[in-house]
Write a structure and sequence with these properties.
Number of helices: 10
CATH superfamily of the largest domain: P-loop containing nucleotide triphosphate hydrolases
Order of helices and strands: EHEHHHHHEHEHHEH
Largest sheet: 5 strands, parallel
Pfam family, one: Cytidylate_kin
Bound molecules: cytidine-5'-monophosphate
Helix content: 55-70%
Strand content: 5-15%
Protein name: Cytidylate kinase
Subcellular location: Cytoplasm
Number of domains: 2
Keywords: ATP-binding, Cytoplasm, Kinase, Nucleotide-binding, Transferase
Distance between the termini: 19 Å
CATH topology of the largest domain: Rossmann fold
Catalytic activity: CMP + ATP = CDP + ADP; dCMP + ATP = dCDP + ADP
Length: about 220
């Protein structure tokens, strides 16, 4: 059997894992899946059909219809969709359907970088590399504010911070697949680290694992 290489990246919203995942996928020539988009796609479908986010069977149907090749970041990246995604993400049946699709994706050669909340713990527990990327809630809120302002928008820091804390609580507090580092994950705290430094740190970890394997 051909070995596929898997890099699992988990962490809270706004810690920089998406950018890091993209850089690593480019560098190591691996496929890339932002699993947050799959939960966002389910939430978006419910919103489009004016269905309540608590409607589990509609969420299951939407989850079955998620096509990983057709996830539209431009449409799904809205802040409200992320918030809604964290509500449908608490349903175990919805998670089961999406996790199965994510695992299929990970199995496709030459392998993939997947980022999310439960990649190292649930989706790909045998991943070759597991990274847990985090940053303080204040730093994440400041980054989000800067992002909004950079495109000419305005927002209130206190509200953004409250939003981030609420999302963390929902993601870390749910019964099924809560956000937490896998026991064998490498921790990367980006609070005082630019994305380039985080990329270099991740590369050092990965290259070290690859070098040890090549020697074995
Ligand atoms: O990462 P992103 O902000 O796009 O994720 C949106 C929401 O989807 C998260 O707040 C989380 O509740 C859920 N999610 C999840 N498991 C994943 C990825 C995302 O529960 N692997």
């Amino acid at each position: 059997m051909t070995h596929v290489f898997t890099i699992a990246i988990d962490g809270p919203a706004g810690a920089g894992k998406g950018t890091l995942a993209r850089r690593l996928a480019d560098h190591y020539r691996l496929n890339l899946l932002d699993t947050g988009l799959t939960y966002r796609a389910v939430a978006y479908a419910l919103i489009q059909h004016a269905l309540p986010l608590e409607n589990v069977s509609a969420a299951e149907t939407a989850a079955r219809q998620v096509d990983l090749a057709k996830l539209d970041r431009a449409v799904l990246s809205a802040h409200a969709v992320g918030e809604a995604a964290s509500k449908v993400a608490v349903f175990p049946s919805v998670r089961r359907i999406l996790v199965e699709k994510q695992r299929e994706f990970a199995k496709t050669p030459p392998g993939a970088v997947l980022d999310g909340r439960d990649i190292g713990t649930v989706v790909c527990p045998d991943a070759d590399i597991k990274l847990y990327v985090t940053a303080s809630a204040e730093v994440r809120a400041r980054r989000r504010l800067a992002e909004i302002e950079s495109i000419g928008g305005t927002a209130d820091f206190t509200e953004i911070l409250a939003d981030i804390v609420r999302r963390d609580e929902r993601d870390m507090g749910r019964a099924d697949s809560p956000l937490k580092p896998a026991v064998d994950a490498h921790l990367l705290d980006t609070s005082e680290m630019a994305i380039e430094a985080a990329f270099l740190a991740a590369m050092a970890i990965i290259d070290d694992v690859l070098a040890k394997r090549n020697k074995a």
